[in-house]
Amino acid sequence: MAAPMSNVDEIRDRVILGEFGVRNVHTTDYPGNYPGYDDTWDLEKFKKNFRIDIVNSDENMLEFDMIGIDAAIANAFRRILLAEVPTMAIEKVFVYNNTSIIQDEILAHRLGLVPIKADPRLFEYRNPEDQEGTEIDTIQLQLKVKCTRNPRAPKDSSDPKELYLNHMVYSGDIKWLPIGNQADVFADAKIGPVHGDILLAQLRPGQELDIVMHCVKGIGKDHAKFSPVATASYRLLPEITLLQTIEGEQAERLKRCFSPGVIEIQNVNGRKVAKVVNSRLDTCSREVLRHDDLKSLVKLGRVRDHFISLCQSLYILNPYIMLLVNLTHFNF
């Protein structure tokens, strides 16, 4: 069991989850509010206390902890990930031929939302006044597909997959057309759609698409298609404190009140005793407060300056790169 906190420290550092409400939700550590506490802003003190811990990561997901900051700064990190990290996306669509049933405007909008695999750090922002793109600010893509009948289709078949060729147009049909010296500069880069299985249109014999697209560098603040993340969220670190030893049948019920992995039953001198093993897995459902014999034995809270952040990439950029770009917005 953790050592008890003073009432002032609890108000300053913890959000308390009660049976009928949540307490201490507002930040109160501003200068002069608490006698004996120096809460004046100090950059060196902030740099000393603030840290980022990488908890879990893969090619499109990053879970990290931000410790020693206020909710306003944590939210600024989230908003920068959503709206300030640049990517490449389709901006201009030149439709030379479209005999499908999809209108040009709808098809152009759908193409614009296809994630493009290209490192935006290798390109410059395009001047809005420039009508023609160059190799340093534009990626050119082409979609050229024509549907025909399959001469080898069974006579009694009614399946479009057997009757027609190229009747399903996917993002994988989009091809990169290098501009200038891009073929040499990006010889090792696989520029094109991130996913090749995004359905764009369905065709029938005689229908075709002939489209050229220009990708430019932009940020999510200008349009959502430039946002590099699918999800960017944060939550406060849960804190579960057992006020006294809980054992036996009560320990079993306590374990069922929380998410799997939060509470474990340990054998102590032949007794089943409940222990908190990983509070960060808790969803803060407050289920334990429904049990009259348990609610007075457990204290639920959240650490005010410890944020569990989750960033899910669209595979356009590595999550580590997005985090580093994010940090460059702060002059720490």
TrEMBL record:
It is found in: Nucleus. GO terms for molecular function: DNA binding; DNA-directed RNA polymerase activity; protein dimerization activity. Keywords: DNA-directed RNA polymerase, Nucleus, Transcription. The keyword Nucleus applies. It comes from the Eukaryota. PROSITE patterns: RNA_POL_D_30KD (PS00446). Residues 61-327 form the DNA-directed RNA polymerase RpoA/D/Rpb3-type domain. CDD domains: RNAP_I_II_AC40. GO terms for biological process: DNA-templated transcription. GO terms for cellular component: RNA polymerase I complex; RNA polymerase III complex. Belongs to the archaeal Rpo3/eukaryotic RPB3 RNA polymerase subunit family. This is DNA-directed RNA polymerases I and III subunit RPAC1. It comes from Cyprinus carpio carpio.
